[in-house]
Amino acid sequence: MKKGAFKITLATVFVLLVGYTIYHSQKKEIFSELALNTLEALARNELPEIEIKCDKGGSGKCYNMTWEEGLYGVCRFDCDATGDPADYCNSLYVGFVNFCSAMGV
C-alpha cells in the first residue's frame, strides 16, 4: 500500500514539474517575441514620438544647477535649461546658496 501511494505521489510531482516547465517556456517565447518586435521597430526607425515635459519659469525639471567662477572662486549659482527630464534644479535652494555665498558663509 505504501509503495502505491509513493508511486502516485511521485507521478503527481513529475506531472506538475513538466506542466510548470511547459508553462514557463511558453512565457519566455512571448517575451522574446515582444523583444523581437521592438528590435524590428528600431531597425525601421518606427519608434513612437516621445513628449518630454519640462517645468517652466527657470527652475524645476529639465534644469541643472550651474555656477560662474570669479576671481576668488565660485561667485554665483543659477539654474540653466538642459532639456533632460532627469535633471532638477530648485530656485529656492539656488537663492539660498547665493545668499550664503554673498554673506561669506
Instruction: Provide a count of the helices.
Output: 2
Spatial extent as radius of gyration: 30 Å
Query: Looking at the structure, what is the overall shape?
Result: elongated
Biggest pleated sheet: 2 strands, antiparallel
Strand element count = 4
Helical residues, percent: 40-55%
Structural class of the secondary elements? alpha+beta
- Tell me what portion of residues adopts beta-strand conformation: 15-25%
Give the topology string: H per helix, E per strand: HEEEEH
Mean pLDDT, all residues: 76
- Low-confidence runs: none
End-to-end CA span = 87 Å
Main sheet: strand order = 1-4
How many domains comprise the coordinates?
2
Question: Which characteristics define this entry?
Answer:
2 helices, about 100 residues, two-stranded antiparallel sheet, 4 strands, alpha+beta
